[in-house]
Specification:
Layout (H helix, E strand, L loop, with lengths): L3 H29 L32 H6 L3 H7 L48 H9 L1 H4 L13 H12 L3
Helix pairs in contact: 3-6, 4-6
Length: 170
């Protein structure tokens, strides 16, 4: 069954495959090697400017929220609501989160049959536009212990547009 010629072919095939693998590895390393970056004489290919170390950053101009809300666009707020749609609805039905139609100026925690989490009473008594703004900016910081996994809306314009949209769902 096995003679010396078959055994020689098998060993030669394995050695040839190993040789091709090692030569391929060597060729790939030599083509794509960008330097080890060791020692003092290495140079970065490019620099990413993070803005740190350039001195004090200019403070962002603080815009009054009432002014933002007065000029808010409910149509843009409907687009922002797309981030909320997975857990909230504006048609009166509860999902993972409570329904949000009529939420502006509604008492906090007032949706019957919904099990709220966290300390929402720290936000206030009513979902006023100002309380909604604070909560939407940082839900976990405003109401510690909330199970709402949303990180918040960082842009004040987005929060104002969303609140304007929610005011229209009353």
């Amino acid at each position: 069954m096995f003679d010396t010629m078959t055994l020689t072919k098998v060993v030669g095939g394995v050695c040839g495959a190993l040789l091709i693998f090692m030569l391929g590895k060597w060729a790939a390393e030599s083509m794509y090697h960008v330097g080890g970056g060791h020692g003092d004489d290495h140079a970065a290919a490019y620099v990413i400017d993070t803005g740190e170390g350039d001195g004090p950053a200019e403070a962002e101009e603080e815009v009054d929220f009432a002014t933002l809300l007065a000029s808010a666009d409910a149509g843009a707020g409907e687009k922002v609501f797309g981030k909320c749609r997975a857990c909230h609805a504006v048609d009166g039905t509860d999902k993972t989160g409570p329904h949000l139609n009529g939420v502006v100026d509604r008492a906090i925690g007032a949706v019957d049959g919904f099990g709220y989490s966290g300390n929402l009473q720290q936000v206030g008594d009513v979902w006023s536009p100002e309380n909604l703004n604070a909560f939407l900016e940082n839900p976990k910081g405003t109401a510690p212990g909330t199970t709402m996994s949303f990180a918040g809306l960082r842009k004040p314009e987005d929060r104002a547009n969303l609140i304007a949209y929610l005011q229209g769902t009353n």
